[in-house]
Amino acid sequence: MDVLFHKDELGYHQRITEIIHADYDHVYRYLATKQISDWFPQLSFQQIDDVEMLVFDMGEDEPAIQFDILVKQLNQEITFQWDEGVVRIVLEATENGTLLTLEEQMPLNQALEQTANDFVGWYFQVLNIRTISETGEPAPLDMVDFMALEAETLDVLENL
After folding, report:
1. Mean per-residue pLDDT for 43-60?
2. Where does the source fall among the domains of life (predicted)?
3. What is the reported pTM?
């Protein structure tokens, strides 16, 4: 998995690329249909006032958050609002399967710790998309690994 970070006047950016050994139609179903909940249980697509929205629901009496879907191209791309940022996931067929590229942009005014948390969260979700696409089962999340990568990512972001 390749991960790159940069900072500009728009915010902090993360770009992750990963080869998934599965057909891109198969991978896309996990990204842009009700199967999204198979690997990211807190996310779902819902019709709200006749508009399809991406809904993030942590449960535990917390209100669900609705995100606008900015682009949804069949078998190719999904782009959506993520808090004050944007997440874009693009799929490309390759001879080895599917190249998944995730680009996330978070604003400069967000706490850097939160940006690092978001970036690491999507890093692990890309691993999860790969695992479920290749095996049919989501990957377990190791919080020790998550926290270690979060500290490393925060250090990188502070030095951009």
Report:
1. 92
2. Bacteria
3. 0.94
